[in-house]
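Appendix B, example 12.
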Amino acid sequence: MKKIAAALMIAGAALMAGGAVVDAYPPGSGPFTAEPTSPIPGQDFTITVDDCAVGEIVIFSFPLPVGAVVVNEPCVASGGTPAFMLGFLAAPATGTASATFTAPDAPGTYTGSAEYSGRTLNFVITVQAAPTTTTTAAPAGGLPATGSSSGNTTMIIATVLLLAGAGMFGVAQVRRRQVVAG
């Protein structure tokens, strides 16, 4: 019994330890945020870096069909709560830097980069196709079409199967009846 309890405790500890690591690194997280996340062609979008050192220059680069756009932006304090050290307020150690780009005319996935703190990190933007709008005119009878017709094959099959099932249920009920001796 003690061996089973020990095995359960070890298995539980292993499961809990793994969960802590998973929560520390959620999927898709990183130092970048994009607004909007999936722009349409020609729409402006903003990339923000969240973990740069205050005062350093962040070099953003984004490819275009004819070259690349490079933007140098300073990292500024993110307005977070300053650290409290020996009775004095200190500036936050990290800040944010943002750059705005215009989405290319062709839909697709594009990779840009940001250089700061001696490293180069990539970000991915998916440019969506511009939405198209279509209008459907109402029929001359006044009410719009609902998409249903009386000759719908699926409805006919479903009705036949429903009636067949009801018929089999009725036959089973008749056969199940017992004759009462009187």
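The longest strand covers residues 44-53. Confidence is low (pLDDT under 50) at residues 18-29, 80-92.
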